[in-house]
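Record now logged for everyone:
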Amino acid sequence: MDAFYASVEQRDDPALQGRPVAVGGSRQRGVVAAASYEARQYGVRSAMPSVTARRKCPELVFVPPRFDVYRAVSAQIHAIFARYTTLIQPLSLDEAYLDVTVSLIAHPSATAIAEEIRAAIRAETGLTASAGVSYNKFLAKLASDYRKPNGQYVITPRMGPRFVETLPVERFHGIGPATAARMHALGIRTGLDLRAWDMERLARHFGRAAAFYHGIARGVDERPVEPDRKRKSIGAERTLEQDIHHWEQALAVLDLLVDRVWAACGKRGLGGRTVTVKVRYADFRHTGRTRSLAAPLASRAALREVAVGLMRPFFPPEMGVRLLGVTLSNLDDGETAASGTQFALALDAS
């Protein structure tokens, strides 16, 4: 989807159409969750501090997020996907991989299917989507960003290796900023540079990821579309309207976060064994602690007890705290969680 959260807000409020919009944060606090294309022209991006976004675009309109609405629209979009294939791998509310090798509806090509899906999304939701069509996930992802917004691009098998050659490695899906910086330090700046490295040399510097990097530099990606891929974690975080300094303030926020995480687990019938707390300070430095248990947590009270224990050492802080977060990972189904034992076998992995 194109600037999904911001586009939904502009759709639902005509006064926002054509204006630079940021979803999330506020005029002074928080971070941008999504930016409209009008805002992006000023350099506003998701995950940018609100203060920085305001500085870049003084006319920026901040809108509080409405995740229930975004989830409802996402369900509409996924229902459209399901008309064409059962092999759907969601990446987020607004993005998914579809394997249409064997489509549920007869079509001459994947290109035609993508065009029809985009038209259906526009007709049924009033929103635009972009599509990438290719013979593997890596190239399809690259192609989906190539003609945004409201565009479509196809990378054929003949085009694949050449398409990768000139791209900067930081544009590769699967290579984040830290890895891109390491590659730059090694003289790897483009796909062609990456292709010049053999497996042995890549493995020395990048370990288990070497095989993936070796393949994508050649336009090769053997990963299948995984419709039943399990969720890895459930988390919640909150940017505070004012920096906090006291344990009682943190505890009140922590209770809200634990409530949100446990409610999300209940909806999905999941429990988890690993709890992580996150703290971000006023200067945007962040830290955290993690604890893994021998069995899945069986109650909200148990989750709270672990989270409180992990958070307590950070208070009193050296400076104000602007964000707190709680995440539960190593997820399992609820039946396993309900039968789990608790803290006697807890392992501290902080």
